[in-house]
Write a structure and sequence with these properties.
By secondary structure, the chain is of the alpha+beta class. 56% of the residues lie in helices and 7% in strands. The protein has 17 helices and five strands. 32% of the residues are buried.
Length: 363
């Protein structure tokens, strides 16, 4: 059972309630119990009323007098004090409900990442649990650090910040379940050559192989549908100095867009700072234009060597057969060639799009 689904009762009785039941059953007073335990009458009275906690020494004395294990008395005391602390926290979390509601709670619950809270401070608790933070203040501090890295150039992404933060957090959580080797640049480049040859396969075939090859080179690859109001195609970042993450949304479920996004994110890992988070979507990026251009050029050239594509374009007569034949020689999917030709305006946007492979999400 995950920690999210551990039962947490909304009521806990003070141990003093059970002490009073013991007194009633034996028809003795609290003062008599105090005498038998060797404690002051005032202390026992305060324990019965819930004002004073049961300390370990008192629990041991109660064990001898009531024939109830000291561990049970301490367990009841611990449960009661924890319950009081939760009640106190609930009151402190109430002012932050509106903040918590900015996150896509229904979609996170749909993906079984949170228990959808009905009302009150439970909403805030679920958000804190999801982000792995102990308090709202700690969570906001974490967001400030993340935003400083992710939004260094303050682009307009047409995305809501809370939704982007949640989607990035999903990447963290998914990555926890994936084992990788330490990052090795040479191994990663070798893996990418093999992955390039998989572009002609269906997603059911290439995706597990792609994940395995990346993991062996120290890179976690995650395909996670975008959350509502997240207009990103992909993200690349370093989870640790020796472990990287590429997370894609596959917003445009065509193979040319999918593969270009993947190799574009790979370029960021290979060419650029490990202190940056690279967000890409709708032709926009959060990094300097020259870095984005470098990643674009690297991805394009890795998919189709620029000299080979240039020679093809000079002889191209505009037929589908030419594209298929060229793609076969290059060892890649025809749709990728079409995407590159459309990007360079050699083909109109919709021309030959039937050669692109469309991916579907498995339910």
């Amino acid at each position: 059972m995950s920690e999210r689904h551990i039962y947490q009762p909304d009521y806990a009785a003070a141990p003093g309630v059970f002490i009073q039941e013991f007194l009633d059953e034996l028809d003795i007073s609290g003062r008599e119990l105090a005498r038998r335990c060797g404690r002051s009458a005032k202390l026992i009275a305060e324990i019965i009323s819930g004002k004073a906690p049961i300390e370990p020494e008192t629990a041991i004395q109660l064990e001898r007098v009531t024939e109830t294990s000291a561990a049970i008395w301490m367990g009841m005391e611990s449960s009661y004090r924890l319950h009081l602390a939760r009640e106190k926290e609930d009151a402190a979390l109430e002012p932050h409900i509106e903040w918590a509601q900015t996150f896509p709670l229904k979609e996170l619950a749909k993906r079984d990442l949170i228990d959808f809270p009905q009302e009150g401070s439970a909403i805030v608790r679920e958000v804190l649990q999801f982000f792995g933070c102990g308090s709202v203040e700690a969570c906001r501090e974490r967001f400030v650090e993340l935003q400083a890295v992710a939004y260094r150039h303050s682009p307009s992404f047409m995305s809501e910040e809370a939704a982007v933060l949640a989607w990035l957090r999903i990447g963290d959580l998914r990555a926890e379940d994936i084992s990788t080797e330490e990052f090795d640049r040479s191994a990663f480049l070798a893996a990418l050559k093999t992955i390039r040859s998989l572009t002609r396969e269906t997603i059911e075939v290439f995706l597990p192989q792609m994940r395995e090859l990346c993991a062996k080179a120290g890179v976690v690859f995650i395909l996670e549908q975008a959350l509502p109001k997240v207009a990103l195609s992909g993200v690349s970042r370093w989870l640790t100095p020796r472990r990287a993450l590429i997370q894609q949304t596959a917003r445009h479920l065509s193979n040319d867009h999918f593969w270009f996004t993947f190799f574009h994110e790979c370029a960021h890992l290979l060419l650029h700072s490990r202190k940056q988070i690279f967000l890409d979507g709708n032709g926009m990026s959060n990094v300097a234009a020259e870095l984005e251009a470098e990643a674009n050029d690297w991805a394009s050239n890795f998919l189709i060597p620029s000299d080979a594509l240039t020679r093809f374009i000079t002889r191209f007569k505009g037929t589908s057969d030419e594209v298929v034949e060229f793609a076969e020689k290059q060892g890649i999917a025809p749709g990728i060639v079409v995407g590159q030709l459309q990007y360079r305006k050699v083909l109109p946007h919709a021309r030959m799009s039937k050669l692109k492979q469309r991916y579907t999400w498995a339910e």
